[in-house]
């Protein structure tokens, strides 16, 4: 499994890629998308879309996640939601599914920190990589991707453990034969 994680923002976005390793998830690439702060938001969004499309094409992720945060100021919130919308849009185009927002509290709990500096220090220790002090966006993106990897891995294990053969569903007055189609056949318009 390959996970692409984002610490999104309208000017500097951190990104990181994790994939399966022999003893767990391993960071394989990380960096920053730097956008011109003085350009209008619409211009930055076009550049952002191009940059993350290139990341998808280069790293071919199976899943995508981003840090879900609440911003108090309208202009900042508007920009952040638009940036996250671009992540969702490109994920839908490339993977035919939605990206997964992950709350900051979940990320910090998974990594074992309570602050941005703590996240950076913990990510550096966990994966034996140096993240410069001023590059919180990179350490946050590493933490997002790692958390996504951990959550998705546990979800997959849980699904496999709970997997049972599907039983036909019954509803009042009708029965569905095993292997039967429960909905209208493809190309047939249901009658009302």
List keywords for this structure.
Nucleotidyltransferase, domain 5, disordered C terminus, 5-stranded mixed sheet, globular, 46% helix, alpha/beta, 192 residues
Care to describe what's here?
- There is one protein chain.
- This protein is of the alpha/beta class.
- The protein has a single domain, classed as Nucleotidyltransferase, domain 5 (2-Layer Sandwich).
- It is 46% helix and 19% strand.
- It has 5 helices and 5 strands.
- Strands 3-2-1-4-5 form a 5-stranded mixed beta sheet, sandwiched between helices.
- A hairpin with a 4-residue loop joins β1 and β2 (12-21).
- The longest helix is centred in the C-terminal third of the chain and has 27 residues, at 136-162.
- Mean pLDDT is 81; it is low at 165-192.
What is the CATH-assigned architecture? 2-Layer Sandwich
Distance between termini?
Answer: 44 Å
In sequence order, what are the helices and strands, one letter per element?
A: EEEHEHEHHH
By CATH reckoning, the class would read Alpha Beta
Low-pLDDT stretches are 165-192
Summed up, the domain count is 1
Strand order of the largest sheet: 3-2-1-4-5
What's the alpha carbon Rg, rounded to whole Å?
A: 20 Å
> How many helices?
5
Shape summary = globular
Helix content: 40-55%
Mean pLDDT: 81
- Find the count of extended strands (DSSP E, 2+ residues): 5
Subunit arrangement of the protein: single chain
Largest sheet: 5 strands, mixed
Global structural class: alpha/beta
What CATH calls the topology is Nucleotidyltransferase, domain 5
